[in-house]
Amino acid sequence: MQHAISISKLSKVYDSGLAALQEVDLDIRNGEILALLGPNGAGKTTLISIVCGIVNATNGKVSVQGHDIISEFRAARERIGLVPQELHVETFETVWDTVSYSRGLFGKKPNPPLIEQLLKDLTLWDKKDSKILELSGGMKRRVMIAKALAHEPKILFLDEPTAGVDVELRKDMWQLVRRLREGGVTIILTTHYIEEAEEIADRVGVINKGRLILVEEKSELMRKLGKKQLTVELNEVLETLPEALGGYDLDLENGGERIVYRYNSQAERTGIGSLLADLNRAGISVKDIATEQSSLEDIFVTLVEESR
Amino acid sequence: MNFEAVKAIYIFEMARMRRTLLQSVVSPVLSTSLYFIVFGAAIGSRIEEIDGVPYGSFIVPGLMMLTLLQNSISNASFGIYFPKFVGTIYEVLSAPISFLEIVLGYVGAAATKSLILGTIILATAHLFVPIEIRHPFWMLFFLVATAVTFSLFGFIIGIWADNFEKLQLIPLLVVTPLVFLGGSFYSIEMLPEFWQKVTLANPVLYLISGFRWSFYETSDVSVEVSIAMILLFLALCLGLVWWIFKTGYRLKT
C-alpha cells in the first residue's frame, strides 16, 4: 500500500554541526492522525521542514504519496499544507487576500466559495476584510490554518498547533482535525501537550535527540507500556509493611494509611488476587481499593528518560 | 509551469504598490520635479546645448534611468526581503513552484512598478521641456531591459541582506554614486581625459548613454556596446539568481 509519506534514512546535520535528525525511518499511513511527541530541540520541526521543502536534508529520501520531494517536488508539495509553529503572517494584507494568495501560490485557480466556507469554518468570516495586523494571536493562528488549507491539501502538517492557544481555540482545532480526517486528510501534528495526542491521535511517534524512538498505535502503546497501579486504603495505620508481603512491588504512602501496588496490566497474572488474599492473611483490614492507568504523559517521560 | 503561482505573487506584490501609492509614485515625481528646477532651470540656464540638445532635454533620459535603477532595486529587494523578515517566506519555499516562477512573480512586479514610474517621469518631464524620441523601439528596449536587470539585482540584494542596513547599503553606497557619475546630468566629453577613461569603467554609463541615444541620437559610447553591456548584466544577474536557488543560499538551511 502506498503511504501518505514515506521517510527513509533521513538525516540532517546543520552547518553548526548539530545533528538534528539521525537516520529517521517513518511511514505515515493515508488518512491517519499521527502525533509526533518530543522535547524541545528533538528534531520535530526539522523533520517537517524537510518534508515541506523548507530545509534541505543531508541524507535520506522522502516521498509524498509516491512522489519524491526533490525530483517530483511539484506533485509532492501540492499535496501538503503546512501550519508552522511560529506566527508568520503578512501584516498589511486582509484575511481574504492572504488566504486567496496561498491558494494561488499552490497552483490552484481562485475558488471564492471554498475560501468563504473555509473562513466560516474557522470563524474568520466576519474578519475577512480586516488587516491581519489588527487580529489577536489566536485569530492569526486561525488565518495560518486557513492559508494551509486553501489549496485543499491531502496531507496537513500542524507544528505545535495549540502552543499558546486558549482552551476554546484548542477544542475548535481538535474538532477541525477530526473533520478533516473524516474527509480523508492525513494529519501529522507535533505537540508538547500529551493530552492532545491522547485525545486525537491514532498513532504516536516519539522523537528525542534526532532519533525516532518509536512509532506505535496509541492504544497499543498505552497497553504495552502502560503500568497500572492499585491503591489500597487501610482502616488502620501501618508502621511498616509486613514481611509476608515482600514479594510484591509495594509502597506505603500517606503516613501508612495507603498501600500502592504497581503491576503490569499486560502480565498474565497481575497478582491482585493473591495480594488481597495475603493482605487478609496478614490481618490488614482494607477500607477501599482503586486502580489507575498511567497516562501517555507518564509513558512519554519514561521513554525520553530511557533514551538519554 | 505554475502560472497561478506567478499570477498570485505578481498580484500580491502589485497590491503593495497600490497601498503605498503616495510614497511609490508621488515621491519620485516630486524629486524629479526638483531635479528639473535645480539642474534644468537654475544651472541649466547657464549651460549651452550639449551635442545640439538643450540641457533641460538632455538630462531627461538620465533622470529616468536614475529613478528606474533606484526603484527597481528598492522594489525588488524589499519585495523578497520582507517575507524573509516576517517569516512568511516559508510559504513560498513550501509551494510547488520553481525558482524561475518565484523570480518571474517578484521581479516581474518590481519591474512593472519601475516601468510605470519611468513613464510617469517622462510625462512629468514633458511638462518642463520638449522631448523627442527618435528610436521608440530601442528606448523601450533599454527601459524594459534596465528595469528587469536591476529588479533582478534588487532581488539578489534582498536575499543577501539579513538586516535593514544591508538592504540600504548597496543602493546607497554603490548604485547612487554610479548613476550620478555615469553621465546622468552631463556628457563625459565635458570631463578631463583622465576622468573620461575612469568613467568608462562605470557600468551605468553604458545604460544612460544607450538610453539617451534612443532619444536624441547622441551618445558617449556606441549604442552596440550599450546593448551588449545591458545584456551582459542581465545574464550575470540571472546566473546569480539561478545559483541562489540551486544552493538555497540565505533561503534554506
Descriptive report:
The complex is a heterodimer of chains A (308) and B (253). With 308 residues, chain A is of the alpha/beta class. Helices cover 32% and strands 28% of the residues of chain A. Chain A has 10 helices and 14 strands. Chain A is elongated, with a radius of gyration of 25 Å. The model of chain A has no long low-confidence stretch (mean pLDDT 88). By secondary structure, chain B is mainly alpha-helical. Chain B has one domain (3-247). Chain B has 10 helices and no strands. At the A-B interface, helix 2 and helix 3 of A face helix 1 and helix 4 of B. Chain A: Keywords: ATP-binding, Nucleotide-binding, Transport. Chain A: Pfam families: ABC_tran.
Task: Offer a quick outline of the entry.
The complex is a heterodimer of chains A (308) and B (253). Chain A is built from 10 helices and 14 strands. Chain A has 308 residues and is an alpha/beta fold.
Blueprint (SSEs and pairs):
The complex is a heterodimer of chains A (308) and B (253).
Chain A: E1 5-13, E2 19-28, E3 33-37, H1 44-52, E4 59-64, E5 67-68, H2 73-77, E6 80-83, H3 95-105, H4 112-121, H5 137-149, E7 155-159, H6 167-182, E8 186-191, H7 194-200, E9 203-208, E10 211-217, H8 218-225, E11 227-234, E12 250-253, E13 258-264, H9 272-281, E14 286-293, H10 296-306
Parallel strand pairs in A: 3-8, 3-9, 6-7, 7-8
Antiparallel strand pairs in A: 1-2, 1-4, 4-5, 9-10, 11-13, 11-14, 12-13
Helix pairs in contact in A: 3-5
Chain B: H1 3-19, H2 21-43, H3 55-86, H4 89-94, H5 99-128, H6 136-160, H7 164-181, H8 193-199, H9 203-216, H10 223-247
Helix pairs in contact in B: 1-5, 2-3, 2-5, 3-5, 3-6, 3-7, 3-9, 5-6, 6-9, 6-10, 9-10
